[in-house]
Design a protein that fits this description.
By secondary structure, the protein is mainly α. It has eleven helices and no strands. It is elongated, with a radius of gyration of 25 Å.
Length: 260
Amino acid sequence: MSTSDASTEFALARGGSARGAELGPDDRGDPSQTAVADSFGPRLGPTATFATTEHFNLQTARAITVSEANGRAGIYLAALSSNLIALAFIGQVSRLGEAFYAFALILLPVLSFVGAVTFLRLVQISIEDIAYAHRIALLRGFYLRLSPELEPYMVVARGARSAPSSSRERLEPNAWQLTLTTAGMVAVVNSVVAAACVGLVLEAAGVDPLGIPLAAGAVIGAGAFSLHERHHRRALDAYRPTDVDRPAIAVPPPQPAESA
């Protein structure tokens, strides 16, 4: 399952209105469904044009989120790899002396900061992708209500109107699924960077034996990953369709008619 497909499935689980907008099994043959097109009257043409244009814009927005996520992750990994190569050269020249520790303790905290902000933005991007998928699902529901005969040619996930909470829980991503995302990958790498930074601090301070810095780094790394995963989970739990891209979805109040 691709990231976009998983986002669409999760959006349908979180946005009940998207599911309700589609036809259920009991809706077939309902005169109220077949009369949707007639209710628009002469506005049907402009309405369909607006809906398809909005659908295209949402698809473009989803593509932009994927592009930005790949770009952010690529920038972070490129910075990490170049800094590790520089550390290797410094280690060879200084024979792992004071220059190496000074250089490493300057670069690694900066890399941790870059990784943290990259992770935060990737979480925001994933939520934006879910929001766009939810809005596309609403438009698909409109298409099916407008032309129910299109259903055999569109992939539609059907279920009961009042789906049990257990089905929603099955659609919620687990910890492993969050790790498989781009944000989860950056969280793992950034946790390792934080662990290495702590280990080098203890080693530079002359803490012996070597097992102590290793154990401390492992604890810090596990704690850092736990914080990353908890933030990712809380951000998804707090997601609301109207909280994303508010300037683009806000409708200004109608202006009062000017007096003659």
